[in-house]
Amino acid sequence: MRGRREKREVRRRDSSVTFLGWLRPRDKGERRRPSDGSPFSTRQLLLGVLLFVGLTAAGLSVIVRVSSPGQFAVLDVWRNVKILPFLVAIALAGAEAVLGGARVQVLAGHVQSDFRWRDGMLVHFYNAFAAGVTPLQAGSGPAQYYVLRRKGLRASRALAVLAVNWVGSMSGLVVLGVLGFLYLQLGSEDLAIGPVFRGLLITVFAFAAAAVVVILSPGLFGGSLPFARLAHRSRRGRGLMRAIDRYRTALNAYVRTGKRAVATNAALSWCMFLTRCLIGLAVLAAMGVSADALSAMSRQMLQFAVIYVTPSPGGSGVAELSTLGFMAGIVPPVLMVSYALLWRAATGYLGMAVGGCVVVLDLTVGRSR
CA-to-CA distance for 9 and 204, rounded, in angstroms? Predict the structure, then answer.
């Protein structure tokens, strides 16, 4: 009996967190440190990349048929683009990445003093890449958790950092999205987004409200709830309850002692979203399209909210199609395909590509050091 219990304990210790196959299970009987191995499954990775490319191509092809049938060529995308404004858009994309790394470093540095800014950048690039190749961006959380654990954060503290970081992001997305929606409605601007995109917007706000309550109030999973009582009847259930208790303790301690870090993270998250909206303005300027700045930024904030809850990897397909409804009042139909491609390149494709390069280097050259 004792030997059997010891084997079960080894298997429990050596099983890594899994989500859609992204954090690979460890071999039985082999104990590894958090810094060992890779968080990515090659098969899932290839599938995610293929889905992203295929759905993106499908979305762009629909825009071609609707906006400029028989008039679009690849060279048309660059033929009338002004280089300087587009370079500004790329520079703003770099600034967004810097803000993304800084907001992670602020939180993780509060609980671990040797957590550096470049470590936060590494977390951000893992997030950008994993979010782009997993449905509902589900792989981003485990990928960020993997890097935080490698950098020495305890499991409960890493989860607390991710929870606070997510709440900071959602607060900016929801508040700025609502303000943008109100600005467009009060300005009597017509949004031809249709019932699908309206439903996705409602989903964003409902999901955000429910998720914030669950994340910031883990005590809801206390022993008073029926499913929690049932969980205590099994070994795995008791382990889950203990993990929730550790997470709750770490989160409460973090929020209590790290109010300045939480506020700084929220401010950086909001600035990151505003910077992403400025990218769209720079793309419009590069195409010679004049637009009201607040109107264009408000429309983009609603687009980002829709992309966040899109089930496809990185919002592929839906993100491109959303330009037809959200930007129809600003971008001329003949330029819609070019705008969608350039806007997505600056706000999505570039970050995913750079993130993929950083991840590959980190898992090969960086790890070998």
Answer: 40
